[in-house]
Amino acid sequence: MNYSSLYGKSHLIVAAVRVLEYQAGAPPTIENICRLLSISAEEVLRICRKLKEIQAIDMVETIDEIRIYITDHRKLEDIPIQDEISSLESELMKFKKAKEEQKKKIESLQAEHLEKKKKLHEELEKKLKKEFNPDSSR
Fold first, then answer.
1. Range of the domain at 120
2. For the segment 21-43, what is each residue's pLDDT rounded down to a tens digit?
3. 100 in the same domain as 74
4. For the whole model, what pTM was predicted?
């Protein structure tokens, strides 16, 4: 199992909740889970919020701590197995794509401009030759 994906980390957190609840006889806090899994509190909290959204766990917040309860472990299987792409990465990909399209558009405009310039020079040369060589047009 890939433990760097949301699916893998979700399973780790739920397993940690079970182990810690068994050891202490009470639902664990975010800090307990962090210590057991060596994951930052921010990461554990982010995943717990996602798990709460799908109703796999419940979080009870007090003034100084957040305790985690498992409500339906089967909801973990609803999480896509492939790695999640963070919104920042997806925004970055959109930005790069937009930049590439803009670059292509600029290049095509520059090519059009160059072509127009060539045609204008050719026309000017013809006119100048015509003015300076009136005999050649007869």
1. 86-138
2. 999 999 999 999 999 999 999 99
3. no
4. 0.59
